[in-house]
UniProtKB/TrEMBL annotation:
NCBIfam families: sortase_srtB
Active site: H143 (proton donor/acceptor), C236 (acyl-thioester intermediate)
Gene3D superfamilies in alphabetical order: Sortase
Stated name of the protein: SrtB family sortase
Signal peptide: none
Any one Gene Ontology molecular-function term assigned to this protein's record: hydrolase activity
One Pfam family from the record: Sortase
Keyword list, A-Z: Hydrolase
Taxonomic lineage from the root: Bacteria, Bacillati, Bacillota, Bacilli, Bacillales
Length: 257
């Protein structure tokens, strides 16, 4: 019995050690990739500062129609991983990550943004979404990690204060930028099809929107209709077996496709 206990203890220590190692590697990886993503913005901000002798140029309105084109902020990111399709940030939280998209919804559950095995996985988009095409429901997944990384802060929307004061999501893609406002947050199980991407009609989509809004833990004055595009964020929850915590947001501002 002593030998069995020692083996179990050793196995547990190895598992914990591996988890901590993955956590350290994960934080290092994403800290480095944030520098890659945000550095062009810092450089642009510095280079755009007017010289003392120069008048400040006023921006001129453009009447040219928007065309689908690549978002240059992602140039270096897609060179390191062609599966990177966007970047998600929620101000006031630790959610600030690249978004990948695989050929299925399995690979990035256990692989990081560099395609290396890691228990924390990646923040990733549903493989059925088309980042450059028509979507009614963009779906993004992430783990609820105990070290408070990835989508751990999503569960914080159980709090009404967070729901009201951290309601804006920035989700930029390789084709443009987007701002979204949260209108629903709730706990559910996997039997509820909140990750639906195809709707037979406007009426079916409208009924879906009404259902997810009614499920919300908190009331929202944000109105949604079948004309809207929504963003669905999903993570695991410890509330009960197979529980999921879900946040829905409506697109309110977009530049590009």
């Amino acid at each position: 019995m002593f030998a069995v206990g020692a083996i179990v203890l050793l196995f547990s220590m190895v598992k914990v050690g591996a988890y901590l190692q993955d956590g350290y590697k994960n934080r290092k990886t994403y800290a480095e990739i944030r520098n890659v993503y945000y550095e062009p913005v810092r450089v642009q901000q510095l280079s755009s500062l007017p010289k003392p002798s120069e008048p400040i140029a006023q921006p001129q309105p453009s009447t040219a129609p928007l065309e689908k084109k690549f978002n240059v902020r992602f140039t270096d990111l897609v060179k390191r991983n062609e599966d990177i399709v966007g970047w998600i940030t929620i101000e006031g939280t630790r959610i600030d990550y690249p978004v990948t998209q695989g050929e299925d919804n399995e690979f990035y559950l256990e692989h990081d943004v560099n395609k290396e095995e890691n228990v924390a996985g990646s923040i990733f988009m549903d493989y059925r979404n088309n980042v450059g095409g028509f979507n009614r429901n963009f779906i993004i997944y992430g783990h609820d990690m105990k070290n408070k990384t990835m989508f751990a802060d999503l569960v914080g929307y159980e709090s009404r204060w967070n729901f009201e004061n951290k309601a804006t999501i920035e989700f930029d893609t390789i084709y443009g930028t987007g701002k979204w406002i949260i209108f629903s947050a709730y706990t559910t199980d996997s039997s509820f099809d909140y990750i639906k991407t195809d709707f037979a009609s406007d009426e079916e989509y409208g009924a879906f929107l009404n259902e997810v809004k009614e499920k919300s833990l908190h009331h929202s004055d944000v109105e949604v209709s079948s004309k809207d595009t929504i963003l669905t964020l999903s993570t695991c929850s410890s509330a009960f077996e197979n529980a999921r915590f879900v946040v829905h947001a409506k697109l309110i501002d977009q530049n590009g496709d």
